[in-house]
Amino acid sequence: MDRLLDAATSRGLDRYTLGQGKLGETTLMRNAGRAVAIEAAKLLRGDTEARSVIICGKGHNGGDGLAAAGYLTEWGYDCRVVFTASADDLDPVVGDFYRPDMLNFDPATDAAELHWDGAALVVDALLGIGVEGALREPVAGWVDAINDQPAAVLSIDLPSGLSADNGRVWDRAVRADLTVTMGYAKLGLWVNTGPDLAGHIVVADIGFDSAYFDAVEEGHFRFTAADFAELYAPPARRTYKQQQGKTLVIAGSRGMTGAAAMTAGATLLAGAGLTVAACPLSLQPTYAAAQPEIITLGLEDHGQGLFLPEHVPLVQESLDWCSAVILGPGLSRSPQTLEFARQLVDHLEVAAVLDADGLKPFNGQIDPLNAAAQPLVLTPHVAEFADLFDHDRQEVLADPVGALHEVRSYFHQTVVLKGAPTLVLLSNGDIVVNGSGNPGMATAGAGDVLSGVIGAFLSQGYSANEAALLGVWLHGRAADLAAARVGLPGITATHIMDHLPYALAPFGVRP
């Protein structure tokens, strides 16, 4: 998986690399400047007469911009530098690249004075990874000016104003067409508002010493198609249905049978060999009609259309058969049903996915989940996460990464925080950003499908962490295929479910 860095880890990597003595600060800055200049030249399509304007702050980000200006000027490009601070305030390393004798400096002292003069490219070298809080003048004015002009924008490391830690913007930030980030992508580029501002992301190798990460216990990563291909083991040619995963789905209630049908259907479409859907007996005909491949297990509910505490011993008998359980989609919030779910979790003998109403009994009382004898994958959306872990909903929405950071200090099961993007907290404390999906997934039932997909992988013997990563990516990939076929606005959960086999198809069959 691609490693993502927050601000603290970025600084630690920088200090470690310099401490090894193989590279100095000047060399790192020169390497960064060259990487930026190469990407700038690509954007300019090699047209040396097309003007670029590099807006430099006084810190190391500005130093990278000055170094890039040096290369572009040396290569014959029409490059103009705007320095937003006094040369007297320069860091000594940045001062090595401040060359009024070689670079074409614009005399503008604030954004209002600058005339862009038909610039084809603007390079944002204002701020780096240390942004916390609203921008102050004169930087705020420069950010507004960059956003108001028509040329393409290249940001160095991060769009100025964007938090490296969580992709948050307090009041304003540069909107880039391309971000050249040094060594490793910054976490903030891929979460929250980061993807809306970063444009295309290029990661430039400038010589950082990766041995630094040998001593880093917890990290941030991004899961992509390449990671799926490496982790996923396609079925063998001579397999049979019992070897492909046996999943028990406990979901649905009167008025919510569709949730059970989508969850159960998704297990098969994601590759599970056998699926049994436990259901209230009064609803069994509805369950059976929803998908003929699903086996139903009717539980006497006295016409209530609910799961009841008395069903726990009956469900336990099926736990000897299945290899994974999915509990919760559409289960209802009836006190009787919530008690059923609470008791069932106490008796789990196989790994399980808990979603939606299956999480409700544990709101603010997560000790039974932490103490579960079997691995669990929890799949809350923001509101469910906030209720479960006693967080403020708006704070989770504003900073989902920060919320997971807090939770990982005391909770040791796998958590899938659904959102844009979906984040996976692994049981070892790593946080993984999913690399697939689109806004069309914000549709009723999409979470039910996701539970089924994760449950299918869990039933096939993948660990809770692996099942979560595989399931989240495949779910998003199916949604991407659905968007390409039917268009983004009209995607439904059924579209996502129907495209699961197509999303899996490229990954083949084992000999």
What's the count of strands?
A: 19
In the predicted model, the low-confidence regions spanning at least 5 consecutive residues are none
Q: Tell me, rounded to a whole number, the average pLDDT.
A: 94
- Lateral arrangement of strands in the main beta sheet: 8-1-10-19-18-17-16-15-14-11-12-13
* Proportion of strand residues: 15-25%
Going by CATH, the architecture of the largest domain would be 3-Layer(aba) Sandwich
Question: How would you characterize the largest beta sheet?
Answer: 12 strands, mixed
Distance between the termini: 26 Å
Shape: elongated
Helix content: 25-40%
Could you characterize what this model shows?
- This protein has 511 residues and is of the alpha/beta class.
- It has 2 domains: 2-216, YjeF N-terminal domain (Rossmann fold, 3-Layer(aba) Sandwich); 226-505, 3-Layer(aba) Sandwich (UDP-N-acetylmuramoyl-L-alanine:D-glutamate ligase), CATH 3.40.1190.
- The protein has 19 helices and 19 strands.
- The chain has helices at 7-19, 25-43, 60-74, 92-95, 139-148, 194-198, 225-231, 257-269, 284-290, 312-319, 335-346, 367-370, 382-389, 393-398, 400-407, 446-459, 464-486, 493-498, 500-504; strands at residues 2-5, 52-56, 79-83, 104-105, 121-125, 152-156, 178-182, 185-186, 200-204, 220-223, 246-250, 274-280, 295-299, 324-327, 352-354, 376-378, 414-417, 423-425, 431-434.
- The strands form 2 sheets. It has a 12-stranded mixed β-sheet, sandwiched between helices.
- Helix 9 (284-290) links the parallel strand 12 and strand 13 (295-299).
- The radius of gyration is 26 Å and the shape is elongated.
